Each structure stands twice: as structure tokens, then as C-alpha cells.
Protein 1
Amino acid sequence: MSFAVLTDTSGNLPKRLTDEHNIGVIPFTYTVNGEDRVCLDIENFNGADFYREMKAGQIVTTTQISPQQYADFFEPWLREGKDVIFISMSSGISGSYNSANIAADMLRETYPDRRVRPIDTRGAALGEGLVALQAAACRDRGMSFEETVAAMERLSTRMCNVFTVDDLMFLRRGGRLSNLSAIVGTVLNIKPLLKGDVDGRIVAFAKLRGRKRSIEALAEKYETLAVAPETQTIGVVNAACRADADRLIELLKRKCPPKEIIDVDYEPVTGCHVGPGALALFFEGPDNVRTAVDGEKVTERIGDLIQSVRERVQGRE
């Protein structure tokens, strides 16, 4: 095996898949009631209880992995004489990619003949995990380190990360919304569609009234933007909204069913920031999928979305 493929638990992959495809995983930590926890296998994670407690007011915090922790994680593979490709969470929402790069620099002096290359997926959850699976597939097909790096960098720009949230207050808690804006959006039952932009930051590209319509709109984006869906493994991730995930999967299979769907709960580190009721879809789209939706430039941030709704409401008073 010419190189190692590594990722983190934000990639939301079941352990059976990381074991099957020989993908090393470093765990992210989250804290509940002063207790540090890790989720090493999403299929054994009780998402229903976790997100129910969050909805009831339980505060969950997360901690970024340090450069030294990344260096310690990478080193065993380097010691074995392997290069490392690390599939990272988006630099637009976390400093983890930067920490991984610092770790790579730290290791260069000790292992001058080895390479460590972090890949900024500009995504999270299965928007990251699907890239890791593809990197392992490239390695197993005999592609070189350089070829795989180039392929994964391009795939990361084509990976469509689209999602909706049930409660805008969780985005506010993450610092993305003011109290008043979040309240206005909640009262009006506004369900934004969100995605990762070219830098992996969260942007809104549609504003819809009601949960049912937002789920239908996710499926419509897949039907419009998915490239050769019949060849794709795509991802559906939910934060304790099983019935909504089932409905989305039903819609995805309606017109252009994918080859396979990985359907999992939101892992807690990413999930605690999007909140209970978050529903996300991940698939490969065209080259411009992060800059355009159906040919329209994505310019609207979530704060602007709610502000525009607020102004319309005030104008009717």
C-alpha cells in the first residue's frame, strides 16, 4: 500500500466502512456536563437521545484538535514508510485543517522523505466522508499519491453539501444570527436551504416556508445538480429526524436513484452546531456547484436571509 488515507470523525463514516476501506480516523471531542466524549462509531451513537437532550436545553461544546495531536496521529504511518493523505473538515468552519498543516510541517524535519498532505474538503459530515472513501478507492486502484491528491482536491470543489435546519436558534448560538433575527425566522416558520460555498463557509441559497417544502427542495437540487447519479454513492445525514430522512430518501429514488445511499445520524461534533432536526444531503455535482445553483450566483448569507424577512414583515405592519 503506497500511502495512508486518514480522516476525522467529523466525516460521519460508520466504523464498518472505515475498517473495510482501511481509513484511519482521529476522533473529535465534545463535552457534555463537563465530561469529554468521543463518537467512534456513528452506528452505535444514540442520536435520538443526544438531540432530544439538546432540544431540551443541554449545552454541548467542542474542542479543536491541536497540531501536536495531529502529528502524533500521523506519525505511525510515516514511521512505516508511508505517505499520508489526510481528508479534513472544511477550513471555512473549523481550524482543524490549519492544525493539520502545522502538524505536517512539524513532521517534515523528522521524515524528510515522506509526505503529509491535508485536503480541505470545504465540507463536513458525509461531505467530508465521501471524499475519504473516494481517496481510499483511488489508492486501492493503484493511483499514485500525486494523482489521488489532485483527484480529491477537484472532488472537494464538486461535492455538494446542502442542508436545512429545523430550529434557527441553534445557528444563532453558533454566532451566525442575532437573537431577534432568529426569533423572527422561527415565528415565520422559515426553513433556509444552506450549503458550503467555495471557501467551505455556510451560505443560504433559498428561503422556504415550512419543513415539507424544504425537504422537497433538497431532492430537487439533487435531481438538478447530481452528475451521473446512477454511479454515485451519496449521503443523507439527520439529527433525530428519522421520518424526514426517510422522506428525502424516497424522493431521491424517485427520478434518478443513486447507486448507493449512506444514511446515518449526524455525529455529535458537527451535529451540535446545526442542531436537532438538521437534515443534510451530499453528492457530487458539476465544477461550479459551490458558486452557482441552477445558474444563479450564491451571494446570500444566513444573516442577510433573516434580515430580508424581517424587513418584509415590518413593511406589512
Protein 2
Amino acid sequence: MKIKQAVIPVAGKGTRFLPATKEIPKEMIPIIDIPMIHYIVQEAIDSGIQQIIFVNSTNKESIENYFDRNYALEKFLEMNNKHKELELIQKIGTLVDIVSVRQKEQLGLGHAILTTERIIGKDNFAVLLGDDLIRGIQPCTGQLMKISETYGDNPVIGIMDVPKAEVSKYGIIDGTFVNGEKQTVIMKEMVEKPSPENTPTTWATPGRYILSGDIFEYLKKIKRGAGGEYQLTDAINMMCKSRSVYAHFFTGRRYDTGNIFGYFEATLNFALSDPRLKTYATELIKKLAKDLSSGKDHEV
């Protein structure tokens, strides 16, 4: 089954990035000169996705507008012979079909996904969380789509191994490897943010899913869980009891840009991989490291 749609929830308040997010959606904060959300959408496009469904909220219109055409700006750039810039923004405006759904109350990831039912219907679809940037030779979502197709178009959750001390930050998968291999797991359950003492494994879910259309029926059955929210984890656990659900260790480097430290790490690494900035960034890091070792104070 060819998966054509991807859901990207962007309704959160982004409180960890205040005061910037008082007026700017967190997803529009750039890594260098490209908004974080652009990287998420590009991953979906590179995986073969044809339609993006944003689950948004009040004051998030700029995300959808970013992927639309801006004819006034295009005309300005054309009149001023800024052809490179014109080509760039025209490309952004034609990347993919965009649909927006309003989540009037932020009641959890499960609730956010449920708001897309009338658009998704019964088809399989992808979910990409905007807090997680994953870079690799192959797009993470595309890897999961291939595994889903291999195993009968069943749901697949992207996973990575994390230190045991960090399992309380994630949903953790319990299951067994398929056919003795060490990359794809058939799930028993997902445990939401267990303590290190009670975790079944260290296989964490950083925010990439391939889900089947019947997830909506499970989402309608679950009750509010942690934080008074409808947890996708609960719906997936119900699903595991009636059909096969897989988890797959994707290849690629993941950055948790939902917090300042992960955002800083992503910015630094993206600069080092940018041909325009690599030499400058490398020399700057060397200089700063030298200054720090000599005891120089960088405070203004």
C-alpha cells in the first residue's frame, strides 16, 4: 500500500522556547536559515508523501503560510533581479499539498491525530513529530514505509536505543526481534516514560510512526491518561492486542529540538555540514575552545 499522507502535529505552545514563541511558532524557529518545520516536511516529501496534514492551533497560521506562495514577495524579488532568492521561495511554495486541521484544545498526541480522521479515512499514513529532526542517507519515514510494506502493510514505529538512565523521557517498546534479526521488532506493548528500574527495554520512540486507518477506532476508545491527555501510546497498545504492530531501528542521527540543548546541538551540527559554513564554523569552534582552555571569559 503506497502511503501518500503524513500528519504533523504543530499545535503545541512551545513554552520551552519562550520568549521567542510568544509570537513565533516554535516550528518556525530556524536552524541556521531554514525553519525547523521545513526539515520535517522535506523528510516526508523525500519519503514519497504527497499531502501534509498540519494539526495546528491559534496563532500557528505562519506555518501553513510558509509553504504557500507569496506573490508580493516574488514580484519584489523579480523586480530587483534577485533570481536565486526568487527560485528558492517559489520552490518552497510548491513543495507539497498542504491541509490544515485546527486542534481547539491541546489534549495530547492521540487527540491531535484523531482530528485528522475525516481527511485520512481508512488509509495508512505517516506521523512525524516536529520536535525531532532526523538526518541520514535515507529519510527515516521512508525507511519505516518500506518495513510496513514488507510486513503486510502493518503499523511500524521508529525506534532507537537510548541509555537506560534516559528511558523516562520516552515511550519504550517491549517486543521480540523478527526472525532473529536485530533491526525489526514485533511489539508486545509500549510503556510511556517508565523509570529506569521498571523499563522493559531501552528501545525508545522519538516521533516517527506509520499507522493504519483503524488507529482512529482505538483512539475513540481510550480514556484520558497522563496529564489529562489522550495518549497515542494507549491506542497503540490496544491495537497490539488485535493485529501485528512492528518497531524498527531506523538509521540516521536524531536531534531533539524540543529543548534548548537539542536545538543548539542541531544548529551546531547543521552548520558543520553546510558547505557555506563548514570552514567558518570549524575555525570558530577551535578558537572558542582555545579561548576556554586559556580561561578567557566570553560573557558580554
Protein 3
Amino acid sequence: MLTSQMVKDRAIKGGADLCGIANIDRFKDGPPETHPSSLFPEAKSVIVYASRILKGSYKGIQEGTEWSTYWIYGYGSGIYSALGGATGAIAALLEEHGHEAVASPGGHTLLDEAPPAREPLAADKQPPCIMLHMRVAAAFAGLGEPGWSKVFLTPEFGPRQRFDILLTDAELEPDPLLDEHVCDKCMACVRKCPGSALGGEREAVEVEGREFEWGRVDCGKCKVTHWGLNPKASPFVKKDLPGMQMDVEKVTYDWYEAYRLGFALAERIDYVNLVAQGTAEHGQGGRPGSVCGAVGCVQACNTHLEARGKLTGGVKGDVE
């Protein structure tokens, strides 16, 4: 008989560092465009698993010497290879026990600033752009909580992980929601963000009496900083686009406008263009990447949580 523990053990063996499970009832109050059943109507369980971002991937940006390590290993082939291995391993286990497994394209920013939904293909269907909210799904699977920056925090790695999601028709025992708080609202993320993008209006979801909350993110300010167009975060834009003079405090782009601007200007910034070409060899498609290095939302948060002794580092015994 298939058990939740078998699924979690297989996820860890497949390459993930963490795995949690939510039942479908925890999503009942969510909007249809983010509901698992809109993607897979027979879904009974939502499996969420994560791979850690290694602390060393930030070192070059901290020293001001090298930006590509975080770009490649914090976003690219290193971490998503591990998640891909876990996806295949879990899906194979489910199919071996007669169940289906459907991978979900979970998202974050797209759900906040998505374009208008396309028309449904049929009268009884949702528009063809269903996307689960990755951070909400991870919270409902008992893995942790969103921090005030909206970056997801786990007791093991704080803000340093990325997630994937599998939906299944197997009825698995859900994990309990995390009842403690990882985020203590120190606001280091808000103070240290070079894009002044964090700490906006409070947002929250509630499930089974547990409330998860975060501060709204200014996604336009975040994205221009992430792409390296904010002179406060990037030395390259000052050198190669000296006339741009972007004042991030006055930026009013939405996420999509900032996203497109990054692609338009990346090839005119020598270092960004060079690294973008290099990352194409690592499965990144040559796109511009994280020049900001997540200075506030990840690095400052992680430093604070480690100083308080809040993180376990994912120490665990071998999985048999």
C-alpha cells in the first residue's frame, strides 16, 4: 500500500531536500485559476518538494567579484536538475501503485501581475492558464511559511530553496501545517532590498485556523533590480548605460513591463550579456538573470535567521 512516507522518502532519494503533502481540501477557498482541481480534476493530494540553494552561490556577489554562480546554481541547472530527478522519482512511484501524477507549473509573481485571462476553450472550463501558487501550496503542505518579503521560509533553510509540485489522485496523509513562525518580522529584508520593493500592504491566506501572511511586493521595482537595471544593485548598468539614470524609487513599471525591459537592455550591458550567453549552456536559454543577488529578501533574511539559531540546515539521517 502506498503511504505518504514512501512518497517523501522517494522524493529525497530522487534529489529533493524537503517534501510535504497537502490534501485537496486545504485549497477549497482558493480562486479557481489557482486550484489544483482546475488542472487535474481527480486530484486528491498535492505533493510539494524543494531543493536548497547553497549559500556559496551568493559569495561572488557578496564580494563584488562574480555574479554568475548564483545565476546558474541558484536558478539554473544545478537546482532544477535535482528537482527534476525528484519529479521523475515520485511520479514513477505513483504510477507503479496505479495512480496518476501531474506536474504543476507553480508560480509566484505571475499570479500577482498576470495579464488578463484568455477565453475558456469550452463553456464549462477555466481559461487555459491555470497556475498553482507555489508559496501557498508549500505552506499548505506543511513545509513552512511565507516571510514578510513573501519569499518562502522553511525551518531547515530559511529563504534558500526552490519548489516543484506534483498533483495526484492518490489519497495521501497530509502533513500538519507548521504551527511555529520562522519569520519574526525583523524587517531586514525590507531595509536591505536595493529595489525598495518589499514591505507593502499586508496580504494573507487562512487554512485550518492557521494564517499565513506577507507584505505585498512591488513587482516592477523588484524585477528591474533583479535584472540588474537598478544602479544601486548593479555596477554594470552604470558602466554600459550611463545615461539611463534609473531612480528605482520612481519606477512604476508592472512586472511584465520590467521583464520585457530586461530582455531589451541585457544585450547592451556587456557583463550581463556575457553571462547570459554562458548560462545558455546550463539550461537557462541565454536570458538575463539575477544580478541583484537577492540581497534583502534572501541574504539579509538568511543572515538574521542563522544569527538567531533558527535554521536546522536540513540535517537528517540517511533514507533507507
